[in-house]
UniProtKB/TrEMBL annotation:
This is Mini-ribonuclease 3. Involved in correct processing of both the 5' and 3' ends of 23S rRNA precursor. Processes 30S rRNA precursor transcript even in absence of ribonuclease 3 (Rnc); Rnc processes 30S rRNA into smaller rRNA precursors. InterPro entries: Mini3_fam, RNase_III_dom, RNase_III_sf. The keyword RNA-binding applies. The active site is at residue 12. Its EC number is 3.1.26.-. The keyword rRNA-binding applies. Keywords: Cytoplasm, Endonuclease, Hydrolase, Magnesium, Nuclease, Ribosome biogenesis, RNA-binding, rRNA processing, rRNA-binding. Homodimer. HAMAP family: RNase_Mini_III.
Length: 130
């Protein structure tokens, strides 16, 4: 088994690509700058932290173990724009995504990605309406 930070490294890329594809497919006529603005909502640590916390109970025991390993991983870098706790939970989510991707568990990966995207979309819409 790889280091949780290795899983998070690849998970970050997989998640970013998923979000970019989803945003483009839902909004085919935007400028690159507007795509950037839309995607930042999904890839910021605070959004990812909310998503993994809401999704946690839907995970199986192995996935929960991977998430915990990712959350507890000792990183040498910390985001300048995120609270430490959000950063750790975002790393946990990326670790799970990277793990599923590298294990070639594509069906489960697609489910997790779609759930995360939906959770963040709902959170954004709720906060926008309040």
């Amino acid at each position: 088994m790889l280091s949780p930070l290795v899983y998070a490294y690849i998970g970050d890329a997989v998640y970013e690509l998923y979000v970019r594809n989803k945003v483009i497919s839902e909004n085919p006529d935007l400028t690159p700058y507007l795509y950037y603005l839309k995607t930042t909502m999904y890839v910021r640590a605070s959004s990812q932290a909310v998503a993994i916390k809401k999704l946690y109970e839907k995970l199986d025991e192995n996935e929960k173990r991977i998430v915990k390993r990712g959350r507890n991983a000792k990183t040498k870098t910390i985001s300048k724009n995120a609270k430490l706790s959000d950063y750790k939970y975002a790393t946990a989510l990326e670790t799970l995504i990277g793990y599923l991707y590298l294990e070639n568990n594509i069906e489960r990966l697609e489910y997790i990605l779609s759930q995360v995207y939906e959770i963040i979309t709902q959170e954004y819409q709720t906060s926008k309406n309040n």
